[in-house]
Amino acid sequence: MKRTNLVLREDLLKEAVRVLGTKTYSAAVNLALEEAIRFKKIQSLPGFFGRGLWEGDLDEMRRDRTPRASGDGVKRKRPRR
Fold this sequence. Notes:
Distance between the termini: 70 Å
Number of strands: 0
């Protein structure tokens, strides 16, 4: 742990302790920092996963599909058991 001096707004610090359910100011600040970092990492995930993975024409890909074996368009009744 690093010991440091910070100038913080007292009203924010008290509210953070209350809403985060911590017992100390240090615990509230640490938890708030952890949550802020986690939030930023989660925000960056869609950009990471959606970047340049596939390039193409979705309509063209769908036209290239071969029909399923049972997909001849004829509806058949299931035999009763």
